[in-house]
């Protein structure tokens, strides 16, 4: 059973999404800080996500939650926060990390189409002098120009900064924080702790030196994957060992009195019933079982029902018929129909053949007669 503290930790840690990632769009990469892909080196301090659903926690924290005004209604903060002002002890490796990449490292996958220099902007909520610094890096390298992001102005409110803290100017000057991306492609932006207690809402990388974010900044340039193609064939097949596709895996007996042709649009083998001589017999296509040992399968033939006739089908094993089927009547043309023969043992080099015929049910007028179903089938499934 989880302790209250561990439960709080689980609830404060953000869930990850398979589609998490960001892309550069017109020279802009806009990131919600709380949508990181991974967090490492988090044994002493840790980034936590805060939103309207965040439960109370028991870690040292000098200020209230600042969800109001946060982009997307959420932000991240490094806790515990044990150094809020100059009078509290500074401890390297605990509440302060001058060297980047040593504590609380977050990663953000980014895809860049335009390589070059990107100015880094962060949006933070700072309430004191010791909760206003962080480091950035790229692909495992902490470039000197991307270290020590500093927030001095705008205390007590969400504020943008692109200033780098420097020895001669602790608050830094605008547009002194940048990262150089030398190649187009996939990269990993990194964020690490400099001071505990920092609250970060959003990160923007911009190629335009004149760009300055306002309010909650530009829309997030989150990677949105294109829709994957859904299955349009073998729609009722839920599990299988192999699918032998009629048009790809079977050899058509081209010299037969009734040959098959390929119906590309449906991925089917079919008979050209426009030729009367092809209406009087069965076409055949065959496949050799090329496994090195005998195996037992349920064989499922997948045919296409047709409105103009109910074609017959035969499955043969080494020229011996092991199954006879007939398509049902249908009002939906090319509806997939399945016929199964259970427990068929296939030995190496066995030959499986599928035959079908062209028939008419006399219901669909065509020319001077009626249309013929063309014995279409799309494959044999081994389950």
From TrEMBL:
Record flagged with keyword Iron-sulfur: no
Signal sequence annotation: 1-19
Cited Gene3D superfamilies: 2.60.120.1620
Keyword presence, Signal: yes
Domain Gylcosyl hydrolase 115 C-terminal span(s) in chain numbering: 83-218
Alphabetical UniProt keywords: Signal
Protein name per the record: Gylcosyl hydrolase 115 C-terminal domain-containing protein
Organism: Pelagicoccus enzymogenes
């Amino acid at each position: 059973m989880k302790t209250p503290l561990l439960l709080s930790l689980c609830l404060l840690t953000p869930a990850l999404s398979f589609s998490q990632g960001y892309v550069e769009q017109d020279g802009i990469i806009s990131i919600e800080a709380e949508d990181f892909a991974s967090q490492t080196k988090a044994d002493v301090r840790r980034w936590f996500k805060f939103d309207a659903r965040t439960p109370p926690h028991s870690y040292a924290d000098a200020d209230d939650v600042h969800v109001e005004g946060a982009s997307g209604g959420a932000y991240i903060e490094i806790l515990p926060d044990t150094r809020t002002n100059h009078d509290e002890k500074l401890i390297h490796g605990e509440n302060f990390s001058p060297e980047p990449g040593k504590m609380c490292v977050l990663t953000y996958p980014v895809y860049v189409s335009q390589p070059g220099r990107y100015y880094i902007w962060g949006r933070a909520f700072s309430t004191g002098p010791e909760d206003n610094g962080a480091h950035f890096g790229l692909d495992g390298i902490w470039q000197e120009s991307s270290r020590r992001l500093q927030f001095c102005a705008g205390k007590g409110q969400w504020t943008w900064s692109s200033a780098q803290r420097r020895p001669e100017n602790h608050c830094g000057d605008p547009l002194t924080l940048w990262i150089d991306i030398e190649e187009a492609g996939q990269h990993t932006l990194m964020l690490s702790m400099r001071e505990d207690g920092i609250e970060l809402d959003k990160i923007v990388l911009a190629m335009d030196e004149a760009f300055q974010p306002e309010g909650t900044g530009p829309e997030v340039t989150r990677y949105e994957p294109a829709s994957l193609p859904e299955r349009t064939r073998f729609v009722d097949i839920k599990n299988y060992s192999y699918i032998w596709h009629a048009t790809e895996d079977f050899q058509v007996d081209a010299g037969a009195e009734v040959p098959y042709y390929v119906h590309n649009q449906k991925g089917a083998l079919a008979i050209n019933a426009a030729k009367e001589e092809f209406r009087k017999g069965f076409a055949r296509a065959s496949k050799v079982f090329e496994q090195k040992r005998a195996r037992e399968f349920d064989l499922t033939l997948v045919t296409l029902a047709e409105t103009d006739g109910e074609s017959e089908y035969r499955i043969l094993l080494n020229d011996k018929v092991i199954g006879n089927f007939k398509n049902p009547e249908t009002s939906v043309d090319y509806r997939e129909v399945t016929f199964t023969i259970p427990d068929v043992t296939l030995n190496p080099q066995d030959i499986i053949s599928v035959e079908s015929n062209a028939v008419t049910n006399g219901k669909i007028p065509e020319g001077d007669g009626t249309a013929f179903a063309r014995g279409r089938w799309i494959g044999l499934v081994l389950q």
